[in-house]
Every structure is written in C-alpha cells, then in structure tokens.
Design a protein that fits this description.
Elements (H helix, E strand, L loop, with lengths): L2 H14 L5 H16 L5 H28 L13 H4 L4 H26 L1 H18 L11 H22 L4 H6 L1 H17 L1 H7 L4 H27 L1 H4 L2 H6 L3 H10 L8 H26 L1
C-alpha cells in the first residue's frame, strides 16, 4: 500500500473517530442480554443490530464533522481531536459523500431487521437517520440547542436497547426500558464531557449546548449525576433481576468515582483524556451489566 493511500486511510479513520465506536456496542450488549434472559436471544439479529449501531455512529460522526465545519462552529481554536472538514484534510463534499455512503450501508441492515422485527424497526430506522442528521444539521440542530443530551439518552438508551431486544424476543416490556437507562446515561456522560471541554468555544460560536446554558459548575454536576444514576438503576432492579448485575457493575465503581473527582479539576484539552475514560467506563459497565443479566437469568 502506498504512502498516499495510507495517509488517506488515516484521514478517514480520523473522520470516523474509532474511539467513539464503543458507545455503539454497550446498548446492543444489554439488549441482547435481556433477550437471552427471556429466552429469545437470536445471534443473527443481534449481530445485525451491532452492525447497524456501528454504522449509525460513524454516520453521526461524519455528519457532525461536516455540518460543524460548514457552519463554522469548528475553528482553529478547537480543543478536541482534529476535525477533517475544518482542517481541510478532506473537502466538505468528500465528508458529505462519506456520510451519505455510510447511511446507504445501513439500508440492507435495516431491511433485514425490518423483516425480522416488523413495522417498529422501520419506524426506528427512519427516526434514527433523521435524528442523526438533525443532531448537527438542519434548521434547528439539536446539539446547538441544548437537546443533544436528551436525544443521546433516547437513541443510545431506550431505542438502541429496546430495538435490539425487540428484534430478538419480540415486543418491549418495562424491565427492558428501565435496564436501557444505564447505557444511555453513561453515553450521555461522554457527550457532557465533550461539551464541557468546548464550553467557551461553543459560546463564542453561538452554539447553545446544555453546557453553555448550565455553565461549568452546572455541567460538572450534570456529569456526576449521570454517573450516579447509572449505578442506581441496577440497585432499583435488584428485586427483579437479582444481585448479580448490581455486583458486577460495582466492579467499575472505583473507576467511576475517580472520574467524578477528575471532572472538577480539569479543563480544556485535559478533558480529552476524561472523555476517553468515560467511554471506557460506558463500555465496561454495559458489558458487565449484560453479563450480570445473563448470569442472573
């Protein structure tokens, strides 16, 4: 492979942001574990859900890169990882094309899942694609109007876990919706760190994230609250699913405690490390929670 092709590969890897992809894994693991617990686990639908979730995450990343570059929200003063549109590594047309191509790849996946899961999956597919585009684009970008956290919680929690369960076990019950909260809350916490890091630049760009509205201290409190609520849910589910999911998730509690302490003392680029650590916590917690649900079943 030539040096030029290696360079292009590296640029596209930078564009799709591989470090964010674990956020697509945890909810599918929890939904599949719940299906297994109820005797409905199906490998092919589970793998299709994982593939669709990963592709949607990549599409969201490309859309965010494209729209933030186009709308001049990303600048040379950006504190986060390099954005390929703003930096000129890829043209806006190339990033837009990559986004459209990735959305197109979700088509066969969603067709298969719709055959298995019926109309609810069709509605989920449409809603997920529209939300991915509306997150940074359109006349009222969700991320720029303090709605990003809410939609992340809904789509990475309730929709991802509930949809994964539905295509395997059929339907959705209250336990699934409650168990969907920890993955959604922790993935939302990743976004909170991102917005805390960018709070000053976003304010200057006119981007009204929830962090901009809450201020630095309010956003720190929000982050800590999301972590705390994630550990509260397995405790509340104790009478229904037993002690094993709670016990396994508590393995990650010291790590979460350290992150909750760190968030109050770091600013700017130093928060990139906290963001990556929060993503690791999200994945580790979700996998252990899923294992506990299977073990406890």
């Amino acid at each position: 492979m030539s040096e030029e092709s290696l360079s292009r590969t590296a640029i596209w890897l930078l564009a799709i942001r591989p470090k964010t992809l674990p956020a697509a894994v945890g909810p599918v693991a929890v939904g599949s574990a719940l299906a297994f617990r109820d005797g409905g686990f199906a490998l092919l639908p589970a793998l299709a859900c994982l593939c669709g979730s990963l592709l949607l995450q990549i599409a969201v990343n490309l859309a965010n890169d494209y729209f933030d570059g186009k709308n001049r929200i990303d600048t040379a003063e950006r504190l986060g990882p390099l954005r390929v549109t703003q930096s000129g590594l890829l043209t806006p047309a190339e990033v837009k094309g990559g986004m459209i191509f990735t959305f197109a790849l979700t088509g066969p996946v969603f067709v298969y899942l719709a055959v298995v899961g019926g109309l609810p999956i069709v509605l989920i597919a449409i809603a997920s694609i529209l939300a991915a585009l509306a997150y940074s684009g359109g006349p009222y970008p969700l991320a720029s109007n303090a709605l990003g956290e809410l939609f992340v919680l809904i789509f990475f929690g309730l929709v991802a876990v509930g949809g994964t369960y539905h295509v395997q076990a059929g339907g959705v019950n209250p336990l699934v919706l409650v168990a969907a909260l920890p993955p959604g809350l922790l993935i939302t916490a990743i976004m909170v760190v991102n917005n805390l890091r960018d709070i000053d630049n976003d304010a200057r760009a006119g981007k009204r994230t929830l962090a901009v509205l809450l201020g630095r201290q309010g956003t720190i409190f929000e982050y800590r609250l999301l972590l705390a609520l994630s550990y509260l849910v397995p405790l509340l589910l104790l009478p229904v699913v037993g002690w094993r999911p709670l016990l396994l998730t508590l393995i990650t509690l010291p790590f979460a405690w350290s992150l909750a302490r760190r968030v109050g003392g770091e600013q700017g680029r130093a928060l990139n490390g906290l963001l990556a650590a929060t993503a690791l916590l999200s994945l580790g917690f979700s996998l252990l929670f899923a294992l506990g649900l299977i073990w406890g079943g």
